[in-house]
Amino acid sequence: MQEKVLELLESRKLSELKVMLSEENPTDIVSYLENIPQNELILVFRILPKELAAETFVEMDSDMQMLLISAFSDKELRDVLSELFVDDAVDIIEEMPASVAKRIIRQADAQTRKDINLILAYPDDSAGSIMTTEYIALKRDMTVESAFVKIRSVGLDKETIYTCYVTDSRRRLIGVVTAKDLLLSAPEQTIGEIMEENVIFSFTTDDKEDVIQTFEKYDMLALPVVDTENRLIGIITVDDIIDVIQEENTEDIEKMAAISPSDKTYLKTGIFETVKSRIPWLVILMLSCTFTGWIIGAFESALAVQTALIAFIPMIMNTGGNSGSQTSVTVIRALSLGDIAFKDVFKVFFKEFRVSLICGAILSVTNYLKILLLDILILGENITNTVALVVSFTIFATVIFAKIVGCLLPIGAKKIGLDPAVMASPFITTLVDAVSLLIYFTIASALLSL
Amino acid sequence: MQEKVLELLESRKLSELKVMLSEENPTDIVSYLENIPQNELILVFRILPKELAAETFVEMDSDMQMLLISAFSDKELRDVLSELFVDDAVDIIEEMPASVAKRIIRQADAQTRKDINLILAYPDDSAGSIMTTEYIALKRDMTVESAFVKIRSVGLDKETIYTCYVTDSRRRLIGVVTAKDLLLSAPEQTIGEIMEENVIFSFTTDDKEDVIQTFEKYDMLALPVVDTENRLIGIITVDDIIDVIQEENTEDIEKMAAISPSDKTYLKTGIFETVKSRIPWLVILMLSCTFTGWIIGAFESALAVQTALIAFIPMIMNTGGNSGSQTSVTVIRALSLGDIAFKDVFKVFFKEFRVSLICGAILSVTNYLKILLLDILILGENITNTVALVVSFTIFATVIFAKIVGCLLPIGAKKIGLDPAVMASPFITTLVDAVSLLIYFTIASALLSL
User: Fold this and answer.
1) What pLDDT sits at residue B425?
2) Chain centroid offset of residue A106 CA
3) Which residues on chain B are in Cβ contact (under 8 Å) with A358?
4) What is the SS3 assignment for B205?
5) pLDDT digits (tens, 9 = 90+) for A226-268
6) 8 Å CB contact between B427 and B410
7) I want to staple A100 with a disulfide (CB 3.0 to 4.6 A). Which of A96, A257, A421, B140 is the partner?
8) How far apart are CA A326 and CA A328, in angstroms?
């Protein structure tokens, strides 16, 4: 398809191109337009029907949008803006450099400008920042028939027509009516009769993660967002929430791997940006290994005598790290899905403690047998039974410590308002490394009288 | 609320309880019913209006559902089944022991039984397994008015009425019409005139991850699922896709942390089940550390002479592991979001190579300065400049190796049909550990002539 677009463009068969693209989906059109030079891009954009052009614009990445905006006349920019939903306009503005953002806001009409500034004012991770202000509001005493008249007249410019909100004279949210309810009711019934009064809603200041959990829990197509006085301010639609879910998941996964989250896709992120998102944690974690270095340093002379102990250091550290990250990652995910909360801390602790006893026992026995059978019996290595016991005891204690730390740190972080996701593998590994070495050398000193 | 339910139940004020619960949301009703004994549970369930009862049943976890099913008469089971959507019935059946599953299927009517068996037959990770068969099908020559008549007559039993599918005489999918299109069109227009012919669809055999990507890409409320002959078999609705997204994300995160995925929530998973999902990888990873042990063992006598080298082992392994897991996790996520594919392997490799050069350089210089200034100058430790250089060179080389392995392994795994997520931190850490020690001792042997 992309070749065909380029071909028609080069041979300047624009009316043919127009007919072809008009049949296409905005998302697909964007993919045909990748890597087209700016002057050709604006040419294609100008031949698209107005609404399709705006929908296509929304699907573009910010680089392509910026290229177009700089080629737009003020009138063209106004035309595109007038077709956009406010939340999409806000998303675009947020990605633009300040000068471009200002130009966009200047070209919006008064009402849109007000709405854009309203949404921009909410904190980044709040429900308010992801809502849109284009919803259908009905009144309690309207009939179903007049509701349809209203939907037909304003529906084209609303983000969804499938969920309508019922507000009172002071714009307070008093009910919700779905298009399904309307279609299945008699024309003369009033909205007040058929509306659902038990409305599920979010506050503008609620956290995005809570909004996600509400969508998951109640299977909704749109969620109304109200202010502290229960006035309807905006709605969040399910298609936007899917993007938010994926963003939040990517962010959590990145944090768990000690990466500062970025909102660009992998191939769009430059080398230096990638380095910037990765190097701080690498440096911090590397420097914090100074402690493990000191611990080993303190036992250096003992290790020089019992050199067999050295070979087990990586295994002990790894097993501790893996045990801890299994627990921390599970707990972080359960916190983020709302499966557990701070009040469950004792339940979680007790569960992880029992799991760690069993895992620790299995691992330490496996390890003891492995040293006895493989290392000593088959390979004939010079390892005493006492060393094998020291290593096995250490594994048992380390697994217990790792799993307890792995569950308590994320829950504690959440409690004091930190993001639990940073308490994942890399952080816990570094902590567990140091403690597991301390356990190792303490047990070794006791049993081997070093 | 839960107390109030219990109170009304104990004082047997059932009609009052019925009125109260009828106003409530199914999801909330389930939360009030937690920890209620079986005989009380069935009592509450019996007073709920039929449709609400079925909706509440769907929201319960499988334990509560099983409790109810065992208390149901065959007629009650049939009544609930007749109110369920087929995809929900399938979800329930999949969680039940075989005997209960059989009883459910036996009580379903012939058509439902056929649909249930159809969906059950698709592989677990396919589009077919998450679709439902209750959609609204329209014909090309129907008018908008008659479409509304059809929607009003069958709409109540369809999973969505907002997207209708146009099929030909052989049930092949030829178009799609939204309720919005219908509402905004004149009653006498035909479906053929207003339908969108460029339909986005999935095949029954498509992977769930591809379905997720399609929803994300095209912002849809429902996706039609067709067989190889383009016949419409079912649809997937957006509320179900949100659950699938969260499940897939949890699964990926668990795999990345070396946990076998489970589909129960954290607190619902028993101790032994948790152990079972964690211990295999812990044992495998622990045993694979045998190699690192051997590498250290081979250099034991050299380490006994140059004991200063031992203290840096944890730091080198950690830094390598963190560098590798940053890359692998980023690449795994990009693969799962569809941001990169196998064809991008050279782009990804080249990017990670450049990133690793910069990260490696920064880390090794930082480390060199830290040893010189902190360890030697301030703490007066007995570390020679050559040792500091050995450690710094090792870090540089290890970071490059870790990042390259971290990007190539997940892409390679995907290519040969394995899940890239298992190529994350724990696996890569173990590999990077062994190689980093080899690098360390090779450089040390050369520079320190061990």
Assistant:
1) 67
2) 32
3) 271-272, 275, 279
4) coil
5) 999 999 999 999 989 998 998 888 888 888 877 888 778 888 8
6) no
7) A96
8) 6
Indicate the SS3 state at residue A297.
helix
Distance, in Å, from the CA atom of B107 to the CA atom of B105, rounded to the nearest integer, reads: 5
Instruction: Using DSSP, state whether A261 is helix, strand or coil.
Output: coil
Cβ proximity of A330 and B254 under 8 Å:
yes
| Whole-number Cα distances in Å, A450 to A386, B263, B371 | 12, 48, 28
Domain assignment present for residue A251? The answer is no
A271 φ/ψ angles, rounded to the nearest 5 degrees:
-55, -50
User: Which residues of B are less than 8 Å from A362 in CB distance?
Assistant: 275, 279, 283
- Tokens matching residue A72: 């737009």
Q: What are the φ and ψ backbone dihedral angles of B340, each rounded to 5 degrees?
A: -130, 160
How many Cα atoms sit within 13 Å of A163 on the Cβ side? 21
Q: Could you identify the residue written with the tokens 């990888």?
A: B281
Enter the tokens of residue B219.
Answer: 């912002």
- A66 shares its domain with A105: yes
Q: Which residues of A touch B152 (CB under 8 A)?
A: 183-184
Closest CA to B134 of B169, B87, B180: B87
Residue found by looking up tokens 């450089």 in the block = B443
CA distance A18 to chain B (A): 16
User: Do the chains contact at B24 and A339, CB–CB below 8 Å?
Assistant: no
Q: Give yes or no: residues B312 and B438 share one domain.
A: yes
Contact residues on chain A for B249, CB-CB shorter than 8 A? 245, 249
Residue B196, SS3 per DSSP: strand
Please give the Cα distance from A237 to B61 (Å, whole number). 27
Structure tokens at A317: 């550290």
Q: What is the DSSP letter of B139?
A: -
Residue B258, in any domain of the structure: no
d(CA B302, CA B306): 6
How much is the mean pLDDT over chain B?
90
Task: Let me know whether A336 and A372 are in one domain.
Answer: yes
**pLDDT average, residue stretch B137-156:** 92
Distances from the Cα of B376 to the Cαs of A256, A439, B369, B370, B392, in angstroms? 34, 27, 10, 9, 15
Last residue of a domain, one of B199, B215, B237: B237
Residues A350 and A444 both lie in one domain: yes
Same domain, B115 and B150: no
Q: At what angle do helices B50-59 and B74-83 cross, to 10 degrees?
A: 80
CATH assignment at residue A181? 3.10.580.10
> Chain B: residue nearest A220 by CA?
B239
Q: What angle do CA A82, A86, A89 make, to 5 degrees?
A: 80
Indicate whether A302 and A381 sit together in one domain: yes
For chain B, give the longest Cα–Cα distance. 94
> Given an 8 Å threshold on Cβ–Cβ distance, is A216 in contact with B246?
yes
Question: Which CATH number characterizes residue B52's domain?
Answer: 1.25.60.10
Tokens read off for B151: 């929607």
One-letter identity of residue B94? E
How close is the nearest chain A Cα to the Cα of B125, in Å? 19
A150, pLDDT greater than 80: yes
B196 and B324 in a common domain: no
Identify the domain containing residue B208 by its residue range: 137-237
pLDDT tens sequence across A324-350: 988 998 899 898 888 889 999 999 999
Q: Which residues pair with B223 in a beta bridge?
A: B236
Strand partners, A223: A236
What are the pLDDT digits (tens) for B299-341?
A: 888 888 888 888 899 999 989 988 998 899 889 989 888 889 9
Nearest in space to B177 (alpha carbons), one of B145, B217, B137: B137
| pLDDT (tens digit per residue) in B385-401 | 999 999 999 999 999 99
- Kindly state whether residues B412 and B315 are assigned to the same domain: yes
- Sheet with A137-138, edge to edge strand ranges: A137-138, A163-167, A173-178
Residue of A215, A212, A190 whose CA lies nearest to A200: A215
Beta-carbon separation of B162 and A184 below 8 A = no
